[in-house]
Design goal:
This protein is an all-alpha fold. The protein contains 14 helices and no strands.
């Protein structure tokens, strides 16, 4: 058996080219970045502690700067310039990711710490009916029922309209009508939530007269905000479906509508589901349109969207925050209920996203099937 060796390309004089030789130089050990980060944090932390200026934010920023400088210099000496630039940019990307995660982690931690003081089974299974502000009682069950009913009805309105609009724009639309629909969808995307609430209030007053606030009006207001998000996300997912799949279906004699139902939609179902969940997350925390349309005074459990006012989690949080200025125990109890309701709302959104992931996983087409 013969072995071959790879030699660097030779230059005009027969010597290896400098750039090719540098590509064959050594590399840093795999543990070096982690070790350098640890050493940088220890050194920076020691210096800050020595000068009595220790702070977590200063430690993180200075450690990142020292690490980036160190990894760039070490990679330039041991490896080559190209690898050094790659390591430096990779470190910058990780730093940016860490900076972006700081507000999210801080928010979740704050809500978790403050919300767990009252978050329990009792809080989730009782309403505020008959509870006065100074009582250490009451829960959020009526707001959970209202939130699920209002957002569910809003999704029932928005998803078919948004999905069919996206199918028209991608599969059938052409000319000025398509341009007009695209323009109005873009305009609706930027509508403030309070404007949607005022629109539904005016519409409700024209049809049913003044003072008729209920959950259905709140759901319609949320659907005005939700439809353009569903249209945009579904449209982008449908455009990602390869044209080869459509052409193969047409070549077998399958009509266009059946191709959309059997080929296009199943292929894009994962992205469409994620877009719908993003639209739900967009509207489930809206407060202003629900204050105007669904009301703010409901304390009883109401599962009927068309009868009386209906409480929701965002409005409940707003109501309790307003009561935090009360004197005595009433303000303390209101603050605890507000944090616990905020934690409940976050958990509801997380459950919705988990459901969406399961739906996209089990219903998306699988390779090799």
């Amino acid at each position: 058996m013969t072995t071959t060796t790879t030699t660097p390309p030779a230059g005009p004089s027969g010597a290896p080219r400098p750039d090719a030789a540098r590509l064959l130089t050594g590399s840093l050990p795999r543990f070096f970045p982690a070790a350098l980060l640890t050493v940088s944090a220890a050194v920076v932390g020691g210096l800050l502690y020595a000068v009595n200026a220790f702070h977590p934010a200063a430690l993180a920023v200075l450690t990142a700067l020292v690490y980036l400088a160190g990894i760039g210099i070490a990679s330039t000496i041991v490896e080559n310039r190209r690898k050094a630039v790659d390591r430096l940019v990779t470190g910058i990307v990780y730093c940016c990711f860490a900076v972006a995660m700081v507000p999210l982690v801080s928010l979740l931690w704050t809500v978790l710490v403050n919300g767990l003081r009252r978050f329990d089974g009792y809080f989730l299974t009782v309403s505020m009916n008959g509870v006065i502000p100074s009582m250490d009682a009451g829960g959020v069950y009526h707001a959970i029922v209202g939130t699920l009913a209002i957002t569910g009805f809003a999704a029932l309105i928005s998803v078919p309209i948004g999905l069919m609009t996206a199918i028209y724009l991608v599969e059938y639309g052409k000319g000025r009508l398509k341009q007009a629909i695209t323009f109005f969808v873009d305009v609706m995307t930027g509508i403030p939530s309070i404007v949607a609430g005022l629109f539904v209030v005016a519409l409700w007053m024209m049809i049913f007269g003044p003072g008729n606030t209920n959950g259905a009006a709140g759901a319609i207001a949320l659907s005005v905000l939700m439809i353009p998000v569903v249209v945009r996300s579904s449209e982008e997912m449908l455009r990602l479906v390869p044209d080869e799949l459509r052409e193969a279906s047409y070549a077998l004699g399958v009509p266009k509508w059946l191709t959309i139902v059997k080929v296009v939609l199943p292929t894009a179902i994962a992205g469409i589901t994620t877009g719908i969940m993003l639209a739900l997350a967009r509207v489930i925390g809206e407060t202003a349109p629900l204050i105007l349309t669904a009301g703010i005074a409901s304390t009883r459990i109401n599962g009927n969207l068309f009868e009386g006012q209906m409480m929701s989690l965002p409005v409940f949080i707003y109501q309790q925050v307003r009561a935090m200025g009360s004197s005595g125990d009433a303000g303390v109890f209101a603050e605890e209920r507000a944090w616990a309701a905020a934690l409940t709302l976050i958990l509801v959104v997380m459950l919705l996203f988990l459901t969406a992931r399961l739906v996209s996983r089990f219903f998306a087409p699988r390779a090799g099937r």
